[in-house]
Amino acid sequence: RQTKPLKEIADMARKFGHGEFGARVNGYENRRDEVGELAEAFNAMADSIAKSEARRSEFVANISHELKTPMTTIAGFSDGILDGTITPDHEKAALQTISSETRRLSRLVRRMLDLSRLQSAENITAQEQFDVSEVLLRVLVSLETKINARHLDVDTQIPEGAVLVWGDPDSITQVCYNLLDNAIKFTPAGGTIRFGVERLGPEVEVSIWNSGQGISPEALPYVFQRF
Predict the structure, then answer these.
(1) Is-contact 77 94, C-beta < 8 A?
(2) 0.85 cut: is pTM over it?
């Protein structure tokens, strides 16, 4: 009666140690002795470790996705300069984009190496004031090659002067890039992309629209879920 539950708990511990994070000790919930306490403590430990592992996996997946954006932009503009697709009078602007994306890539790598983020239940991001219009226009420039390849018209509706907001500029850049990249991808050749920035009292709304088929109604509830 004493050794059988201990062996079961030891077996669950070995499974957990080999990566089976769903392993739990069951059947001892009503025991009010040391074995019941041990089983409860093991399950509590397993739940805590499983949550930490899930956060770690999600963090790595997010960083991997974010790293693709600046690397793709840097490679695209570098190739454009080397093969002559980007004309000499546009080289300086291309080099400025490469420089900006390189610095952003460096910040992303530093963020990835900040192990304290892995141990935090909250995804704490940098908070600073920045011009959201400038971010959107910079993203537009980085996607210029894709836009021209599909012969798309771009309609911008941005107020004059800086539109300052508080937040994480790198994260907002990633969001805008993802939305514009998807808009380009799913707009028929010769179609239109429209994006704008609008002040709504103390807040700012960034909107991105494209001509095309659109997302089917049955898929809309899942737009913000990870694939």
Answers:
(1) yes
(2) no
